[in-house]
Amino acid sequence: MHGRIGVTNKPGQNSKEAGPRGTPEPRFRPRRLSTIPGSHGGNTQVTKAPLGSRTVEETAPIPEHGGSLRALPALPDWLTHPLRGVRALRGPVPWPAVLRGALGVGPVVAAGVATGNTPAGVTAGLGAMFAHINDRPATRRTRTVRIGLPALAGSFGLFMGAWLGGLGLGPWIALALATVGLLSGALSAVGPVCSSAGVQLMVLGVVGAGMPLPEPPPMRAAMLLVGATWVIVMASLLPMVHRFRPAAAPGPDERGAVAAVYDALGELMTVVGTEGAQAARRRLTSAYDTAYEALYAHRIPWQRPDEEERRLRDRLAVAGGLSEAVLTLLWENEPLPARVARTPAQLARSVRTG
Fold first, then answer.
1. pLDDT digits (tens, 9 = 90+) for 228-247
2. Is there a single domain that holds both residue 231 and residue 288?
């Protein structure tokens, strides 16, 4: 199996939940009431909706001294959605990515302004911004390919757009950009990384054709690459961004990514039937996604995997099959023997040592 782990609810999971050893729990949980100070000296009653539907909090004012109170107005969804996302976050915050985002565009543009080359600084900042779009958790080699290949395509698109914009084609420039769009679509069909490259090729081609700058087209393309290179350099110089310790042998990040899947699988097998099972399941899914992208997502079609990479892909496929079996036991709430739960840790050590 070479796909991602897809976890769906067990049939009937939305209508009832299984208790210990398959005993169904009642459809309704006991209602939990709490009081929140009201705006006019009253209290607000909070009730929880039953299982089987989305949890909804209903507020109803409790009058005091025979008076009536109005409920506080609810905040709009566009304001509360980011806050809900922060509260629902499971796992550590990716502070290295946050730091790279803060140090990416701003310092590059500031350097251009300070040296009197504001247009060049803006172009380099544009390259850093597009590089951050493709900067996601991955191994060192995966991140370099994922950022570098789209950056090369984007610089070529910016060069083509600026060159076409300087030819004075008038309305015919639309036909020329349509040709660039066809090339972008063909490139996007190759794979996920090439898809990002195709998008940057098209977008920056249009930007280059419509944004007049004093620099010649080759200079604009070079400054765009400078911004993207700055992001790659930051990712390489900050050792904390790597989940695994680098080594001199080829492919240590890929081996570590596959071994992390077995570690997460062993952790999940240990906590099946406990309250920490769902958190362990999410960590397993995240580890599997990271390993899958390290072995598949950044590969160029004409690049053939070597023997070690094929072996790692086979081990990842085995981990995927084991994960599906363990997830079935998770939904059945069936604990596993300790001897069985210790097996993935031994497999993880085998993967790390080769």
1. 999 988 877 765 444 444 43
2. no
